[in-house]
Structure formats: structure tokens, C-alpha cells
Amino acid sequence: MIRHLPIGPDDVLTVERVERFVKETKRKPDVRLAVLGTLRAHAVNGAEVPLAGAGTFFAALALFLTAVVGPSVPAGWLWLLWLGWGVAVTIAAFWVVRVSFAAHTRRVTATTWLGAYEDSLKN
What we know:
Largest sheet: none
Number of helices: 4
Low-confidence stretches: none
Mean pLDDT: 83
Shape: rod-shaped
Number of strands: 0
Structural class: mainly alpha
Helix content: over 70%
Order of helices and strands: HHHH
Radius of gyration: 22 Å
């Protein structure tokens, strides 16, 4: 079953791979169903939407901490603490956005492969 699924976003979808999927799963409906179900689950996941919202929240929090609260904190080590917190939250925001892009890429890849497999099965 694994050989019929994309390994990553750079895994190339070819006509030969689609034909091999149709041929090898013709007498194995369980495998065919598992592959199509896995691709469909990734295609409709939609995880990038809440992740992007979380990234926006972290970015707004970092901006608030560094631009609004930071200047009102007295000079010295306490100000550095606020600045460090703002940097940490900014790093968290970038991480969440990166994960969001990965989820979107996985969704687009799964949608493409699912469409190719379904189209080949209709013919």
C-alpha cells in the first residue's frame, strides 16, 4: 500500500505510477480502498487554517509584548526579559506558520494524487 502513496511533496506523480496502482489493486479492493481513503483524509484535512490562526495569534502577541509592553517596562534586566519573551513568541509564530505551510503542501499533494487515481479508475 505504501508504494502507492506519495512520500513527500517532491514525489513525482507519473502515468506509470497511476497505471501500476490500477493494475496492482484491481484484485485487492481493500488496498485500493485504504490508499484512496488515506489520500482523501489528507485532501480534506484543512489543518492549515487553524494553524495559520495560531501563527497570527503568536505574531500579534509578540508584537504586543515587544512594541507595547516592552517600552513601559523599566530599563534593566526586566526589559530584557520582555524582549526575550517577545523573541521566543516570534520564533513560535514562525514555527507554526512553517507547519501550516507543510500541512497545506500535504493537502495539495494528496488532492492531486487522489484526482489522478480516481480519474484513472473511471476509465
